[in-house]
Amino acid sequence: MRLQCIFDIEKNAKLQTEYKKIYKDLKEKFGEGEFKRFDKYKKLFENYSDESKYARNIHTGKIKEGIVLTELELSMICDDGFYYFGGSSIIHSDGSFEVNIYTD
Questions:
Q1: How confident is the model over 42-95, as pLDDT tens digits?
Q2: Residue 7: is it exposed, middle or buried by C-beta count within 10 angstroms (0-12/13-18/19+)?
Q3: Which of 10, 32, 49, 61 sits in a 20 to 30 Å window from 87, CA-based?
Q4: What secondary structure letter does DSSP report for 44?
Q5: What is the pLDDT of residues 24-55, one digit of tens each?
């Protein structure tokens, strides 16, 4: 899935509302603690890693069994939001994934 740039999302009020709702629901479902942070290392993913490269962050790992996510939801968890400059997200049939988040 190709991820949309935050500037494009902000231009579309309906889409922005939809993204905010998806992110809020994710935090309620998978977030922990007072600030509803995602535990990417123990609770959600196996073999999770985050690597910074020039103008992007690359998130890889495998979604734990029993957790169902869309590629958009996965990108929101990896980036702790959706305020990125675009990117891509893919979930393979075995649950392994790669999320590329473009940064400035």
A1: 899 999 999 999 999 999 999 999 999 999 999 999 999 999 999 999 999 999
A2: exposed
A3: 32
A4: I
A5: 999 999 999 888 989 988 899 999 999 999 99
Upper half-sphere CA count for residue 38 (Cβ side, 13 Å): 20
Distance CA 33, CA 37 (A): 7
The CB density around residue 91, as the number of other CB atoms within 10 Å, is 19
The answer to whether the CB of 50 falls within 8 A of the CB of 78 is: yes
How many CB atoms are located within 10 Å of the residue 77 CB? 23
Task: Give the gyration radius of the chain's Cα atoms.
Answer: 13
* Number of other CB atoms surrounding residue 76 within 10 Å: 24
pTM: 0.92
Find the DSSP H helices in the chain.
6-10, 13-30, 71-79
Mapped onto helix, strand or coil, the DSSP state of residue 55 is coil
57 with 89: CB under 8 angstroms? no
Domain ranges (residues) in the chain: 2-102
